[in-house]
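Let us practice reading a record.
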Amino acid sequence: MKLSSINNSLDAYQYLKNRLRSPVEEIWVVCLHSNNKIIRSRCVFRGSVNFCNYHPRDIFRYTCLSNASKFILAHNHPSGESTPSFKDIEMTKKIKQISEIMDIPFIDHIICAKKDYYSFADNGWL
């Protein structure tokens, strides 16, 4: 879906669902201007069918080089289940801490599954 801005989790899911259709886990970053207009997005990590290694420095390098005012993190679950794993929750907490230090708001972490999604913001994590 071609969106020019993201104003809620459904917008984020609509923007990301066709990008996150890989049979392996991928982690994407969506960089936004202060008015929620999309600057750009990219897959920053690619893993296996049920795991994806990541490093926060690469996420924040991309946001800084994009001159992002805020960002959304997203990844897929090739299994089709959108429920976050313990690792997903830990990653969200870690990225949130770093985003607060760097003063780049982390507005959502979306897990895209085959038929639905999970929003950490909608569920009170962010």
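A brief commentary: The domain at 9-119 is CATH 3.40.140.10 (Cytidine Deaminase; domain 2).
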